[in-house]
Amino acid sequence: MELLQLMIGGLANGCIYGLVALGFVMIYKASEGVNFAQGDMMMLGAFIALGFGNTDQMGLPFGVAVLLAMVLMFGIGWGVERVVVRQIFGQPQFALVILTIALGFVFRFVAGSIWGYTPLVLETPFAGQNLRSGGIVISLADLVTIGVTLVLTLALWAFFAFTRIGLAAQAASQNQMAAYIVGVPVMRVNSLIWGLSGAVATVAGVLYATRGAIDPNIGLLGIKAFAAAVIGGLGSLPGALLGGLIIGVVEPVAGRYAPGELAKMSPYIIMLIVLVTRPGGLFSQIQMKKV
Amino acid sequence: MSLLQVEDLAIHFGGVKAVDGVSFSVEQGEVFAIIGPNGAGKSTIFNLISRVYPPTRGTIRFDGRDITGLKAHDIAGLGIARTFQNIELFDHSTVLDNLLMGRHTHRGTNFVQDILFLPKVRQEEREHRRRVEQVIELLELEAYRKKMIAGLPYGVRKVVEIGRALAIGPKLILLDEPASGLSVEETRDVAFWIEDMRRDMGLTVLMVEHDMSLVNQVSDRVLAMANGQPLALGSPAEVQAHPDVQAAYLGTGAAA
Amino acid sequence: MRVVFKTSYDRDIDLHEHGQSRAKIAVLLAIMVALPFLVGDYYLAEAANTLIWALAGMGLMVAVGHTGQVSLGHAAFLAIGAYADSALMNAGLPFLVSFPVAGLITGLFGAIIAVPAVRMSGIYLAIATLAVFVIVEEMVILLEPITGGVGGIMAPSVTILGISFDRYAALPNFYWLCLAVVAVVTWGYANLMRSPTGRSFLAVRDSEVSARALGINVTRTRALAFGLSSGVTGLAGALMGHYIGFFNYELFSIFISINLLLVVTIGGLGFIQGAFLGAILITAVPQLISILRDNLVGIGIDLSGIPGLDTMIFSLILIGFIIYEPTGLYGRWLKIRTWFEIFPLARKDMFRRQKSYLKTERMK
Lengths: 291, 256, 364
What we know:
The structure holds three protein chains of three kinds.
Chain A: H1 2-31, H2 38-53, H3 62-83, H4 93-115, E1 130-133, E2 136-139, H5 140-162, H6 164-174, H7 176-181, H8 186-209, H9 221-232, H10 237-257, H11 260-277
Chain B: E1 4-13, E2 16-26, E3 31-35, H1 42-49, E4 57-62, E5 65-66, H2 75-78, E6 80-82, H3 95-101, H4 111-116, H5 119-139, H6 154-167, E7 172-176, H7 184-199, E8 204-208, H8 212-218, E9 221-226, E10 229-234, H9 236-241, H10 243-250, H11 252-255
Chain C: H1 10-13, H2 19-38, H3 41-64, H4 74-90, H5 95-117, H6 122-142, H7 144-147, E1 153-154, E2 159-160, E3 163-164, H8 171-193, H9 196-206, H10 208-213, H11 218-244, E4 246-247, H12 254-267, H13 272-298, H14 309-324, H15 328-341
Helix pairs in contact in C: 3-8, 3-11, 3-12, 3-13, 4-5, 4-6, 4-11, 5-11, 9-11, 12-13, 12-15, 13-15
GO molecular function, one term (chain B): ATP hydrolysis activity
Protein name (chain B): ABC transporter ATP-binding protein
Pfam family, one (chain B): ABC_tran
């Protein structure tokens, strides 16, 4: 019974990892780059929602605040691509890794300057409400998290699989020049994807904030979410969610039955095992280069 | 005995039979060309010989030794050098360094000796350089010695790649479309060099080529392929006159 | 523009193309040796710190700059070097033994983890090293008897043949120690890069498939490069431990890994000189910021209330470099030098970057 309880909490946690991982995967799908600032975008999104919604700040209704935050973060993601990321168009992946790590620090500094470094709590309509069934307590926040994540993953998957823009984005990642030639507006698609990933990060941030206090350093969760994305195989949206869920569930279970340090290591150990046995992740897309 | 013997070689990628039951042998000192339309499996044969892919079936013997199970990095040491269809040079190194990299199989020092740069390392470096200079002289690359690959024109890169293969000091050299993308003059140079390789250096040459004038000029024997299967084997004239070959290139109507 | 007339292959094999550049290095080294007599303790300690960072930077440069293996986890190797050295000294070994052994242990560890990691490339390798970093960090906490756990450990005082090289009691000696280590490693590194081993590193970086066709064992070469890289970083870690004196796992945070990456990218990827320029920048900028801060207080602006300003400024510098000068400080210097050498023949578009398009890395 205790195990089941742990696993439900873990699933909800895993959903948040999965959502941040979705952000990684989207950008990877579109430009084959990795946005190491994804975790910090999640953090910033949560703070912006808090700024709009909390009574001591602007005091807007929760739904409106979240929506506004998503719009604003879409703009920020879009703007970051336009102003910064686009400048290194065509440079090797490594440049983008370092660039986004640096961007993450900037986001953290911005959030720290505006909201300070002491943990704050986002006011949500479902705080402290629990459902009970047969000795298991499920908080409403957990349920919302799981539900929203499933819907969002499905929507994004459909976006990449069926819409013109989604397909164009994938084409652009495989060969930018070829995509240009067949008429894909590579730059505009990239901006759009960065914007979208900003909005998804906001959702992840808000869901994270429903489960505890936030401070500018929660973006470090991005590293764990990144492990999730890798476990799934960087190019796969369902894979990212699955990776997130695996990590989310293993972590508390390992924490219960093994020393705490081992629990902290567990996501990375799983990731290493996956990388060594299947270098491209569970849903691998790596192929031999033709010579 | 033949220098290179390929027997019943096949590789299947999923359902695609890229090479399907090809056999041929290349004699010591001969220039052997493989021709065929795009997708015939010519480059795939090169990739099988240089062990980029493991074959689905068949054996490759070099100098009497079965090399089918060897690793890709063991091939150069036996004396088989190759070039690539889409030039694979080390872009951020100079021409000289690229050629010196070709001397890798001849190194006799380990990394500790290299770090200390013992006299033995210097001795070997001089020898490597001497050998590389011979290649530079043959291919007339003197002007490009200290130039970065990244800034060189296509034709020169193509030559540097041949030079790098020669620097290995091979017995057999595999040239993957040596004339593609070259001007008429450059192609003529390539023909001369292939002659030099055979006559002066005693090399055996196996090449894939589309340029029939080059093939006619230099090759002793030609293997024509289509759809992964051998069509005809013989002298350039024989092969070109073969009805199956004409059908493969021009369509069945033309052969009649 | 200088024209060097070469009369033997040795001129190309030698470390320096002509006598003047050899003389320049000699003068630089002489100034470095004389530094304790020229500056006070504060700046001498900073110089030692810069040397340690340059050493670690060279370590990372072997992997990132010369073999194309991006590592986000080199702080782990600093940690292993520091803890191994301290543990060995606490076990009674003299520094002269413990120091190289610490480097060796770190190098072996790096080479061992590189073997499975070799199958990965690009971004995946970077991620794997990040994972290794987190695991090492947690292991440090778990292995309390050796590492002092969360509490930390005191680095023993360094004595060689009865002479103290303690960082506080005998700072000039400690500085010279660092300088000697850096000089020897730099010499070895430069040797490596003109030898077959160094060329095989570059070959693996630029084209794996043709490296194999030349008979280069890619797996072994990458593992060797990563081992050497982590070994040198381990040496830097050992010195860093002695420099800091008392340390725990927090000294070797992920930020150190990122700072190290900053050293090699800002310095100039693929150039040994880049590691030094990067190290100078990364140790000088905090100094400049604090000087600036003090001066601003004088005119009524107080920046001390803003935490994280240093990191912020670092990040902006980094972003600026990646966008406007991806070849780093050393690349910029080369351009400036060329401009003067061929003056007044430099054209405006001479150094323009070629437009490039990203190709998928899913094909390997």
